[in-house]
Amino acid sequence: MREGSLFNSARRAAPGNARSLGLRMAMELRALLLLSLYFPGLQAQTPLSEERQPEGSNLYFQCPYTAQVNYQRTKAWCRWRDGQCELLVDTTYSTQNATTKRATRGKVTIEDNSTKRIVTITITNLQVKDSGTYSCAYYTNRYEYVLLKTISLIVFKELHKCELDSLSVQCPYSTTVGGTPVYTTDIKAWCRLDQTECNILGRTDGPSTQNHRKAQQGRVLMQDDTRKRTVTITMQKLRAQDTGVYWCVLYTITRLIPILEVKLSVSKKTRRYTAKESGNVTVQCTYSTTDYRAVTKAWCKQSAGNRCNELVNTEWWPSGYLSPPQQGRVTIQDDTSSGVVTITMEELQIKDSGVYWCALYEYPDLSRMVEVTLNISEGTTQTTPAGNSPEPSSNANSFVLLAGVLSVLFLLVLIGSITLWVRRHKQLKRKGTRQAEDIYDKPEDIYDNPEDIAQLDSTDRMESPQDDSKDLKYVTLNFESRLSPEDPLYCNVQPSQAHRKPEDEHVEYATIALKELLTNDKG
């Protein structure tokens, strides 16, 4: 019973004061509904309680109630449609603790804090279709909802664009708008909201087919698909001065009934250049080839009152003429394949300082693409661009980039060289240590008597196959005096060296012959 039409007290007959109270409440709600949804004439009236939220945001709304209201009563949140308030959520089936009841249905949450006597409503991810009139109420023991607070919720689209962009907005409408029936033949309009009125920019009262109506007024195109009940509004070649609040409305003779609100912000592209007297400056401006390939481009200088005086345009370029159009010291060239306009000013003078436009030229209008501020000072040097849009890199920037790359390469080479040197040094050190273990002291340094020296016959030495002096191997032989051929020879060999040699290492052999030293022992 409470899930459908909740607030229709006039139909609930009760004796005495209950009946008069119900009738009075129904009349008050109907009056509130009219106040919150209708905007008489061209003037917008502010409802008693109005909430404005951007699309995608969340709504937090509080409904306080007095001590006379039993805190145990069910609280509800409903939306007004066609004179009745349809239930969205209530606290009948809620999670609760000692002081709080909480319930959620869809993206709507209701919370009743009996200690603070406040009902809090939360709606997440607001959409334009959520715009409307809502009430929070409590349920009485007479099967009625008593109004606590009513608000008008306006969810608006917030759009950010740049100059020369296009704006496209879809404005869906139902069979009734603000309690007024909507027919396929009704006129919808697009207007800009000022302080006291909404100025009409376009209407759907143009030529129509069975399910489609289309009308163009200036830069505004409106198309009404009556089958889908959706109006599509398109604004072309946006300008910075188009920033403002717009309404899609149902248009009647006496009033405008809002369907959709749009908050539009249009920003201009700006750049700054500094150059020296007698030098040159080159400016490049990009545009959409899809929208503006065939449109004439121009270069103009801004004067007082935001008026721009044309200096040169691409319309002066005769068909088949190879050179770009030029007017005095200014040259303009339009690359329609890539969507780039290039303007060159030569032999700059101090008086050339000022604000310029890259613009679209559609007689007699100039539509700004980019605003360029040019400062000229005495002397000669190259131009330095700056701004909020991408620019060709200057020579200074190129030099800094090149220096950075070369510095990185130099560091890499230096680190590599140091690494190789350290590795080579360690290898030489290890090799020198092994050789030092094999080098022997000369016999003259070991023995006192020359006769105790055993010399190796040079003819009995085995050299390496390559006969390379660095491959010679030496062995230290210490002989006792008067060494007899029968005495054994010993060699100190470290086991690790024997096992350390790879199997395929080249092995050298030497034959050692002993020659007896002549002595005078017998005689």
TrEMBL record:
Keywords: Disulfide bond, Immunoglobulin domain, Membrane, Signal, Transmembrane, Transmembrane helix. One of its GO terms (molecular function) is signaling receptor activity. It holds the Pfam family V-set. GO terms for cellular component: cell surface. The chain crosses the membrane at residues 399-422. It comes from Patagioenas fasciata monilis. This is Ig-like domain-containing protein. Residues 40-152, 258-375 form the Ig-like domain. Residues 1-44 form the signal peptide. SMART domains: IG, IGv. It comes from the Eukaryota.
